[in-house]
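Title: Prediction job returns without error message
Component: structure pipeline
Severity: low
Priority: P3
Assignee: unassigned

Description:
Job completed but the reporter wants confirmation the result is attached to the right record. Sequence as submitted:
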Amino acid sequence: MIADDIQIIQAGLADWATTNQGSVKIAHDVPHLFKLLGENPGGVRAAILFAGETIRDETFADVTSRVDRKYWIAFSRGYTLESYAGKSLVEGVAGGKPLFQVIEAARDSLRLCRFTQTDEDIAYFKSIELLTFEGVTLDAYRIEIVVCADIGNNLSETEGST
């Protein structure tokens, strides 16, 4: 279930959030994701978004019943008042760790999450990328992970046997 995956992701980032004086919330769509990233300036904010589901194998879709569920976990510290804005990426601000280090730690926490829907119980790390919206690059990054799920066979037991 998608809801179960999101709860596992959120729980998997709980220690990360505590360590980095941050928060982890669930976004229901892209505008909400940006709203969450803009709340409470200061600490690092993370927002989890279900980004879609695709069949794993088009040829054998009805037989395998496996899908890949894509999740984005977006991160932002908000805008900095530093004259050199990139400084927070590599040196940190207000005694906090550099943003790149914080995001890499989140990636490592996500790779430790275990999902129970299939025999493939790990999250597959796909990328860390700049977060963009309508062609505009934002002061935020996203991690993309994929989780395998078994949605069940939609063929009836008698179908195909004649």
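Comment from assignee: result matches the submitted record. The first strand starts at residue 23 and ends at 26.
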